[in-house]
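Risk register update: the risk that structure generation would not scale has been downgraded. Supporting records follow, first protein first.
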Amino acid sequence: MENYNEDELCAACEAILFSMGDAVEASHIAQALDVDKDVVKSIMNKMMDNYRASDRGIMLIELDGAYQLCTKKEMYDYLVKIAHVPKPKELTDVMLETLSIIAYKQPVTKLEIEKIRGVKSDHTVNKLIEYNLICEAGRKDAPGRPILFATTEEFLRNFGIESTEELPELDSEMIEEFKLEAEAEADGATQLTLDI
């Protein structure tokens, strides 16, 4: 990078510091840019001056020969506020699959969900509870009295229906296809276990 001008070196240093997140030693930056360590120190001093401007939300600090980008103290209130803004609920394919099983088979136990899915569902069920899309709906009258799960009013609101009776009917051919796929996956898992 010997032929690069100062602005290009500043941009490269900024990219390195932003990407790394933590403090990066001047010697490592110099090595990455193929320049002398003193050039890096000079660039860093220029960048520190630029970041001191009142229209910047971040600053560059030096920590024992290493440099790091961080937020200015004056911006902390905004960070606290944004941290309290609720994150949008994102449903993954796995969550939607699990939610569908619960919606159509409710009330249903976690073991019954796992039998249909063929995998453990603890995390997914907990996430759906956290999102208030499902809730505990009593206990099954069976050994161990497992918890039953059902959908909530929030589920109905989110999916724009008044009751679970409005859920689309499942095509019997589709159900059969799902069963065959599940059996094939279960057989494959058993075969894999036996091969090991």
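Supporting record for the second protein:
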Amino acid sequence: MRAKRVAIALLVALFAYLSVYTWNLRTKHIDSLANYTGLEFIGLVVKPGQWVADKAVSFWNRYIYLVGLREENERLTQELEQMRMSNARLQERAAAADRLEKLLLFAPSPSWIEEGGRVIMHRIGPESVLETLMVDKGRLSGVEEDTPVVAPEGVVGRVLRVGATISSVLLLTDLNSRIAVRGRKNRSTGVAIGMGPGKDGSEPLLQVRYVNLNAPLEEGEVLVTSGLAGIFPAGLPVAVVTAIERSNVSLFLTVRARPLVDIERLEEVLLLLRDPQWREEKE
């Protein structure tokens, strides 16, 4: 507001100066007066007007410059936002490409073929009845009940229910999950059983049952599928042993393990389907 008032005052003064100047050109009164009063008086009249004119022109030029600068700043701000959005999209594509590359490197046994699927829904709420997720593949893609579901890091679970284009996957952490496993190093066998979701932000764990009391097994050892139950192919990573306890009243070890797959971050999975040629040979 103050700048606007200054601009108006300068413009009024400039108008007054130009009016006096024009009047002098027509009447020559000021020139005649100069003959009597001298040039100093004229300087006192002309210099303030010249100063006002200079200030008015300078203010106007600065105003035009600031308007142009503001428009340029707005344009650059819009371009920066567009570049940020484009960069975010490129980062997301790069992350997806990296995940898909890892899936493509997964190599099941010859009697299995892999079908890629996208996770479209995770378990809803911590009090859900089952630990499940939904994938966008169903019977039309050859998926059946008990189809193994894996990620590059290891086993995710198995298909529980199948629709035409969507399937429900029972996670290995669910209380109803059972996976036959063996130690990768010491080859001790057992059954990995889900213990449900982790509580209070803790990681979900597995309990490995039916490991003989004297069986060789170490903390930090990776457990892989044994293939004994006929659902999963042998050799798929499942979990890593976190704790081993021996009891004097039980014939089996008490073993805890942590799943290798971070299920909460899953976006893509592989469903392992039996090779049709293998089925024909078996029949």
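The chain has four helices and twelve strands. On this basis the risk owner (M.S.) recommends closing the item.
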